[in-house]
């Protein structure tokens, strides 16, 4: 099974379409989105519609939470483009975490960290609170977003993969997506600029 990974779209609809086209060309069987569908960009409504129409499995990110909150608060001073009721309802329907077993691999999807943690997982660092939380998880592979940094690392028995950000408008954006082979857990990160592989440090 080839699993396509996207995250941190941030209302960049053009980049989302590019990512979906690349993943289709790479023959993925399923696409998952690891949060932050909206905010920072102009096309949140179209991003939500596209993900919904493509049946992409999504989890909710912190910016998605912000968009829902702003919709209900209706602050007239808020300059962020306001989403419509249908888009907000879609975001509200998304869980912050999902768990699956695909090809015998136990997979957890979250945005920042499983268990509701707010400290990001980095290649060199696994937060102590997350280490404690993961003791109760039956997981082999944890898929995350949030940092905009592609990552494929192992912390103890768990493999953590982050596809980076689909968004490509800011300096910290990686403008990438990723593919994970199941059950081998082989990972490839792909640039949305030219469909070229993005090198990552060897998995240790």
TrEMBL record:
InterPro entries attached to this UniProt entry: Ap4A_hydrolase, Calcineurin-like_PHP_lpxH, Metallo-depent_PP-like, Pesterase_MJ0912, Phosphodiesterase_MJ0936/Vps29
Keyword Metal-binding: yes
Domain of life where this protein originates: Bacteria
Keyword Metal-binding: yes
Catalytic activity, EC: 3.1.4.-
PANTHER family (UniProt xref): BLL5683 PROTEIN (PTHR42850:SF2), METALLOPHOSPHOESTERASE (PTHR42850)
Name of the protein described by the UniProt record: Phosphoesterase
Lineage of the organism: Bacteria, Pseudomonadati, Myxococcota, Polyangia, Nannocystales
């Amino acid at each position: 099974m080839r699993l396509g990974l996207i995250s941190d779209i941030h209302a960049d609809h053009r980049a989302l379409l590019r990512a979906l086209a690349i993943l289709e060309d790479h023959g993925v069987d399923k696409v998952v989105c690891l949060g932050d569908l909206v905010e920072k960009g102009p096309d949140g409504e179209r991003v939500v519609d596209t993900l919904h129409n493509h049946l992409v499995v999504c989890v909710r990110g912190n910016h998605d939470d912000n968009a829902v909150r702003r919709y209900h608060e209706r602050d007239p001073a808020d300059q962020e483009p306001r989403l419509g009721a249908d888009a907000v309802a879609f975001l509200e329907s998304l869980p912050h975490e999902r768990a699956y077993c695909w090809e015998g691999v136990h997979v957890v999807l979250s945005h920042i960290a499983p268990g509701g943690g707010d400290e990001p997982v980095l290649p060199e660092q696994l937060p102590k609170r997350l280490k404690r939380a993961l003791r109760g998880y039956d997981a082999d592979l944890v898929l995350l977003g949030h940092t905009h940094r592609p990552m494929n690392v192992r912390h103890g028995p768990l493999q953590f993969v982050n596809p980076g950000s689909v968004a490509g408008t800011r300096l910290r954006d990686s403008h990438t997506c990723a593919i994970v082979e199941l059950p081998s857990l082989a990972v490839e990160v792909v640039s949305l600029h030219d469909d070229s592989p993005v090198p990552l440090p060897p998995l240790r």
